[in-house]
Amino acid sequence: MINNEVRKSSSVVNNGHASTQLMKPHFVLVPLMAQGHMIPMVELAQLIAGRGGGVLVTLITTPLNATRLKTTMDRFNRSGLAIRLVSLPFPCKEAGLPEGCENIDVIASAALAVNFFKATSLMRQPLETYLREHKHYPSCIISDSCHPWTWDVARSLQIPRFTFFSICCFTLLCTHNIASHNVFDTITSEREPFLVPGLQDRIEVTQEQAPGFFYGDLWVKLREEIRAADKAAEGVVVNTFRELEPWYVENYQKAMGNKVWTLGPFSLCNKDVNHMTARGNDAAIDENKCMRWLDSMKPRTVVYVSFGSLTFTSPSQLMEVGLGLEASQQAFIWVIKEVELCREMTEWLGEAGGFEERVKTKGLIIRGWAPQMMILSHPAIGGFVTHCGWNSLMEAISMGLPVITWPHFADQFLNERFIVEVLRTGVPVGVDVPVTWGLETSHVYVTRDGVEKAMRSLMDGGEEGAQRRERARQVSVTAKKAMEQGGSSYENITMFMQQFSHHPPAAPPPAAV
Ligand code: UDP
C-alpha cells in the first residue's frame, strides 16, 4: 500500500543501526488549528496509540493550542498513552496576524483568515527540522487537508503523507463531482438549484450552498495547493464508517483513485464521562451540575441546541431561538458562545429580560464551551439542534439522536442533505441561504415559529417522528459495532497501522541544500 518510491528510499537510508525501540511505527498528526479539526485528530491519536505495541503518536500544534490541550494531555499521560504533543512557534507577526491568533476561533475577521493560512504554511521548516532531529524518525504524516505544505515535509523526509478529513464521503464526493463536471458553468445564478451529478441519490443544492472548499479569488493558490497535495497523498483518512455510506465511500475512493480509510466515529473512543468532558476547551459549566440537571430529566426528553465552535449568531436571531424553544415547551440545553454574550443578550437572558427565569424548570443555558459529548451521551437527551458540522453530526449519529438541521456555511448544507435525505434522521429548520463566516449580520434566518415547529416535529412527530427516531437508533448500533473489535473501522485501524509495522521508520535522508 505504501508508495514504492518512498519505501525504496526509506530502506536505502535505513542503515540498520536503529534499535528495536526506534523502529516502532511513529505517526505524526498535523491538525488544522480549529476545534472541529483538532478534536477529531486528537481522538484519532488516541485510537492509534490505544492499540499499544510500542507505537508513538506525535501531535503537532502551537503554544496557544497546547495550553488548551493540557487537560487532555494530562489524561493521556495518566492513561499511559504514547502520545506526545509538540508545540511549534506560530509566526503571527511574520504573517501579519495579531499575537495569539493561533486558532480559527480567535480570528477577528474573515480578511485575517488568509494571513492565518499563510502563518500555518510557515510552520513547514520548523516541522521538518523537528522531525529530522528527533531520534524516533516518523513512519508517516497524517495531515489535515488544509495543510498542503505538509506534502513538502513528507517529500523531503521521504515518508508517506495521508490526507485527513472530518467530513463524510457523501459531502466529499458531492464537492468533487460538482467541480469535475464544471456544474457552475451551466447555471445562471448562484441561487439556481441543480442536481449533483454522478450520485445514486437525487441531491439538489445551489452554488451558494455548496461552493466548494476555499471558494473565491482570495483562495485560488491555497485551493490549488490543496488539490495537488490531496491528489499526491498516499491515502485519505476519514472520520466516518463504511456502513454509514457504503456507496459514497466506494465511489469517492474511485473518484480520487486513492485508498479511503474509514476509521470512525472517532468520538466513540471516549469511553467514560471524564474522557467525554475533557474535549476541546475546558467546559464553562460545572460537569456535576450539568449531570445532576440531566439526571433529573426523563429519558429522551431534552433537546441539546448548539451551533459548534465557529458560527456567530446575532442577538436578534438568538432571541428568536430562545423564544421558539420556550414556545415548544420542550426541555432543552442551549449553548450560547462567549462572543455572542453582548450586553443586550446578557440582559435579555437575565433579570431585565427574564428569559432564564421563565424557562428555569425546563431549560439549562450554557454560556461558553459545553461538554458536548458528555451531554449527548446522557439518556435524557432526545434530540439535537445542530449547525451540521460533521463532528456534531457524527456525535449525534453515534448517540442515536434525531436532529434539527440548521446549516450555516462550508460543508454544512451538503451534510444536511445527507442527514435529511439519505439517512433520514433529520428535520430541516428551513434555512436555504448561507451565512458568510466573519461577516454575520443581524438578519433573522428562522423565526420563533420556525424553531417551535421544527422542535415539535422532532420530539412529537407522530408515526413519522417515531420512524425517524428508530432509524437514528439503528444507525448508532451500527456505528458502535464499527468501532468494536471485528467491526469495519476497528479492523481498518489495524490494517492502517500494519502498513508500517513491517517497514520500520528509517534514518533521515540528507536535507536539501
Ligand atoms: N464542541 C464542544 N462544545 C461546544 C462546541 C463544540 O464540545 O460548546 C465540539 C463538538 O462536540 C465537536 C466540535 O466541537 O466535536 C465542533 O465540530 P463541528 O464539526 O461540529 O463544528 P465546527 O465547530 O467545526 O463548525
Notes on the protein architecture:
With 513 residues, this protein is of the alpha/beta class. Among the domains are: 21-166, Rossmann fold, CATH 3.40.50; 283-480, 3-Layer(aba) Sandwich (Rossmann fold), CATH 3.40.50.2000. Helices cover 42% and strands 13% of the residues. It has 21 helices and 15 strands. It has helices at 4-13, 35-49, 63-68, 70-79, 112-121, 124-133, 150-157, 169-180, 220-232, 246-256, 273-277, 287-295, 315-328, 343-349, 355-358, 372-376, 390-398, 412-423, 448-459, 462-483, 488-501; strands spanning 26-30, 56-61, 83-87, 140-144, 161-165, 194-195, 204-205, 235-238, 260-262, 302-306, 331-336, 363-367, 381-386, 403-405, 426-428. A seven-stranded parallel sheet has the order 3-2-1-4-5-8-9, with helices on both faces. Strands 12-11-10-13-14-15 form a six-stranded parallel sheet, sandwiched between helices. α6 (124-133) runs parallel beside α7, α8 (169-180) crosses α10 (246-256) and α13 crosses α19 (448-459). The chain is globular, with a radius of gyration of 23 Å. Uridine-5'-diphosphate binds next to α2, α16 and α17.
The fourth-level CATH homologous superfamily of the domain at 283-480 is Glycogen Phosphorylase B
Mean pLDDT, to the nearest integer, reads 92
Low-confidence parts, pLDDT < 50 over ≥5 residues? 1-21
* CATH topology category name of the domain at 283-480: Rossmann fold
Report how far apart the termini are.
31 Å
Q: Compute the number of helices.
A: 21
How many strands in all? 15
Query: Outline, from the CA principal axes?
Result: globular
* Helix vs. strand class: alpha/beta
Which radius of gyration do the C-alpha atoms yield?
23 Å
As a percent range, the share of strand residues is 5-15%
Determine and state the CATH class of the domain at 283-480: Alpha Beta
Strand order of the largest sheet: 3-2-1-4-5-8-9
Query: Major sheet: size, sense and barrel closure?
Result: 7 strands, parallel
